[in-house]
Structures are given as C-alpha cells and as structure tokens.
C-alpha cells in the first residue's frame, strides 16, 4: 500500500483523539472552568454538530481546490483549533477551539477517502479506506486511554498540546507523502460545486447515507451507555471500564481492516453479512450482559462487526456518486455522526422509559435492523449490488478507472 495512506492514517489518529479523549477529561475541564458536568458535556455535542456542518460546508468550499492542498489546509485548521483549546482561558474559548477543530473532521475524512481510493488499484480501494480509518480506531484503542492518563497526570491542557503536535506531524506527513496531484483531481467534476451537488439526485446516494445512519448508529447507540451496562448489569467495578473499552477498541481496529478487505471482494454481500452479524451480536449481548465472560466477548464482537462496515459504507456512497464523489463522501462522514446522535437519542429514550440498562443495546439492535432493511431495498433497486449496475454516461470519470500511484 502507498505510504500516502499512512500519512492519512496519522491525520485520522489525531482527529480521532481530539473527538474522543475529551470524554475522559471532562471532570478536570469542568473543575478548571468552574462549569457543571452538563456544560462540560456540551464540548462533546458541540464538536459532533460542527463535524456534520463542516463535512458539507468546507467540502463545498474546497471543491475546486487541489486535494492535497485541501488536506493541508484542513490540518492547519485542526492545529489552530487544538492550540486554541490548549491555551483557552475560559469555557467559551474552549468551545470555540473545539468547534474550529471539528470543522475539519468531516471534510478531512471525506476528501481523504476519495484520495485514498484513487491511490490504489480498483480491487483494493475499500482496503485503502480501512488503512485511513485505522488511525481513528487506534485513537480509540491506545490514544484515548493514554491521552486521558496524560491529562490526569500533567493537566488536561497537556493532552491538547500533544494533539496539536500530532496535527503538525500529520501536516508534515501529508506534505511529504501524498502526491501533488491524485486521481481524485483528475476525475474532478467539470461543473464544480453544481456538479457535486447533482449527485444527490441519485436515490442510491440517499439510500447509502440512510444505511450509514442506521447501520452505524445502532452500534453507537449501544456503545454510548455501555458504562452503565458494564457496572450495573455485568458487575464490573467503575475503575475497570476504561480498560474494558480497550477490548471494544481492539475490535474496532481488527474489524476495520478485515471489513475493508472483504468489501473489496463483494461490497453488497459483505455489508449484508456484517449488519446481520452485528444485529445478532447486539441481541446476544443484551441477553447475556449479566455474564462477565460473555460481556467481554460481546464487546470485542460489537466493535469488530460495527466498524467492519465503515470501509464498505464509505465505498458504497462513493461508488454511486462516481462522477462527483467528494461531496457525497463528506456527506456520508456527516451521516456517521448523525447516526451517532440518533443511536444515543434512541438509547436514552429507552433508559428514560425505565426499561433497564440493557435497553440501549436492544434499541441498537432495532436501529441496525432498520439499516439492514434499507440495505436490502438499495441492493435490489436499480443500480444496486444485486441488480445489474446502472449504466455510466459515456465520458464520465469514475472511481473504477485505474490511476497511477506516483
């Protein structure tokens, strides 16, 4: 695989660390700024909303910008946001720093996914995406626990200084390793932004986004309240939760790599099998959460099957928006975050209704079934994986065109 993919993975690691490490530092941040735990939690939700906004807005603004320059500019924005967070004298400035850093998130993964797919042969593109997203999974497995420990030992600001340095490293890696012009630039839609938005006329693009929202949202809804399940149902002590979540993170990493390789062999069948398996794992988890050994196994499998869908979900929307994949790719990144919010909201409703601490896992299974249903509709619809592929207009550049990796 080209070294440029690993440069993108470094950026993914830094961005993933920014998104998730704040969860372990909320008590310290709240105490430092003298705000409530609820107000501190807005630093998470504010980030998530900004990801969805930036995914569309910044990608639209960068439509005619060279992809490498766009990625470098986004990393500058990322560095600036985290530097502002590290120096923040008050809560408002901290929130602004979080928003600035978040704006680059969706656009980086959206544009980066198109670049990654064009750096390799057509039969390796989902695997290439999995390498880029591997940075995000490693951030969960290693970065978040280590970042939390650093923040607790040397102050929460030290973690954001470390993330800022990771941003600088990512900028340097992209500058050195990503080709000056990629196939993504060669395949740019000649109509610019108007051409990019035209892909949203495709029902398959919207169906792909729907699969992402529901298929990924189900897993995240179960994960959002997992600490309550682990302590109140499985009987683990609270101090063990961060280390138990490393099992979940290990599942994310392995699932992401395997899912990318399988999606290159058969995209539709891979997504179908993975969503069925994820639904089954969530149901078994809910039924056996009182057994600690089964809980450990379920954590690994939930992370594995849940994130194994990510390369395929991203590849699907790009394949159905081949004439202008960049904005559709970023929109699908936003869809992951919408799924996160939807899953957490549905899971929260079940808890508020008094259905118990396994109810968010059941809710996640139901939401995942919704994603499976949309996938079946999409796969058998015109242009779907289980129907004859839609004919591509003559002369239209597509993601299936091999591009030299120089």
TrEMBL record:
Residues 4-382 form the Major facilitator superfamily (MFS) profile domain. The chain crosses the membrane at residues 42-63, 70-89, 95-120, 127-148, 160-184, 205-228, 234-255, 267-287, 293-313, 334-355, 361-381. Residues 392-406 have a biased composition (Low complexity). One of its GO terms (cellular component) is plasma membrane. Residues 387-406 are annotated as: Disordered. Keywords: Cell membrane, Membrane, Transmembrane, Transmembrane helix. Gene3D superfamilies: MFS general substrate transporter like domains. It is a multi-pass membrane protein. GO terms for molecular function: transmembrane transporter activity. This is MFS transporter, DHA1 family, arabinose polymer transporter.
